[in-house]
Write a structure and sequence with these properties.
The protein is mainly α. About 50% of the residues lie in helices and about 10% in strands. It contains 18 helices and eleven strands. The protein has a three-stranded antiparallel β-sheet with strand order 1-3-2. Helix 4 crosses helix 5 and helix 7 packs across helix 10. The termini are far apart.
């Protein structure tokens, strides 16, 4: 009780001086205005708020010692708040990054407080502005998408495997897949090698801008606006050349320019993309276009054309020499006719019968 002797003595003196007169709470405030930190007054205020005292009570009738327990509790609470604020201040100073792996965050937390106790770790992290998952922490002021976009676009060249390994916990989310696709659609990053992307900022430094990409796509559209299937390889083989070809990039770079232009339909077949300005390409579409002109083709020549011209390496001939993946080839082309005996595909049965009659 001696810890609050000063407060109690002041209150006792005030009550003694006014023993014969009712003393209201407001009267007491005037007497005790100089009490340090107003702790005692705050306690009295709480008691009035809780209905333990009323404005008409004669306070001298209430022994001051009754307040001591409440004062003790208030001071403990105040000291706890001070300790918590000091702890959070240290933590806030140490945690300056937007994202942490959970084990890295716990290590930094222990080092900062010089205490291995993680009892308050999650609460403290939330209090300084982090959202917590099982594997990572990220600032409440940044979404996963915003953070990863910022980190991706810091880089001129992005090795996607290295990036996803570094931010493994975040990159396993659907948000990352949506983000990657969005950045590619906007040409902010462009895949130029398998798993490697170049930032548009780096291309700008090389003298290539978004308008150049749009121009490339427009010139391809004019060159191949016949509705037929084509690949970047067939473009080059057919003599198409444009300013961006001077970059000497691999075909995958030019594929990624065309596939995000909405004037083209695209479909990945084996290791390459095939494009069309009229409908989504397929192996069956290509076969139909070839046979529409050629009328007859051996399955060996067809496999060679698919691989050589379009980069389609999916085998269509079995070891025994018969045609496999017939669904892939014929699809809805119900008029096409395959002769296992002649190892050929015909545009229709009439072409088959003509060849048979001719051979006879």
């Amino acid at each position: 009780m001696s810890r609050y002797k000063k407060e109690i003595d002041i209150l006792t003196k005030a009550l003694d001086l006014n023993r014969n007169n009712p003393m209201s709470y407001e009267d007491l405030r005037k007497v005790l205005f100089h009490v340090k930190d107003n702790v005692f007054l705050n306690i009295l205020s709480d008691m009035f708020a809780e209905g333990l005292l009323t404005a008409t009570d004669n306070l001298y009738q209430l022994p001051p010692v009754l307040y001591a327990e409440k004062i003790e509790k208030a001071n403990k609470k105040r000291q706890s708040i001070i300790n918590t604020n000091n702890r959070l201040s240290k933590i806030r100073t140490a945690f300056i990054d937007t994202y942490y792996k959970i084990e890295d965050a716990q290590t930094l937390y222990i080092h900062t407080l010089e205490n291995k106790n993680l009892e308050n770790f999650e609460t403290d992290m939330k209090n300084i502005g982090y959202n917590i998952s099982n594997n990572y922490l990220i600032s409440k002021f940044s979404s996963i998408s915003e953070y990863l976009s910022k980190e991706l676009l810091k880089l001129d060249i992005i090795e996607i495997n290295q990036f996803t390994n570094k931010y493994e916990e975040l990159c396993n989310s659907l948000e990352f897949n949506y983000l990657l696709d969005k950045l590619k659609q906007q040409y902010k990053i462009i895949e130029f090698e398998k798993g490697a992307y170049i930032n548009i900022r780096k291309l700008n430094q090389m003298g290539i801008y978004l308008v150049d990409i749009k121009t490339y796509c427009s010139e391809v559209y004019k060159f191949r606006n016949d509705g037929k299937c084509f690949s970047v390889k067939t473009l080059n083989d057919d003599g198409f050349f444009q300013k961006l070809n001077d970059l000497g990039m691999e075909n995958i770079f030019y594929e990624n320019l065309l596939k995000y232009d909405n004037r083209f339909f695209s479909h990945k077949m084996s290791n390459a993309y095939v494009f069309s300005t009229s409908k989504k390409p397929s192996v069956a579409t290509i076969v139909f276009e070839i046979l529409k002109d050629a009328k007859i083709i051996s399955i060996y020549d067809l496999q060679d054309i698919l691989k050589r011209k379009y980069g389609i390496t999916t085998p269509i001939i079995s070891d025994s020499g018969s045609l496999i993946n017939q669904t892939l080839i014929f699809e809805n082309n119900t008029n096409l006719f395959y002769s296992k005996e002649f190892e050929k595909i015909y545009f229709n049965k009439e072409d088959f019968y003509e060849e048979v009659e001719y051979d006879e």
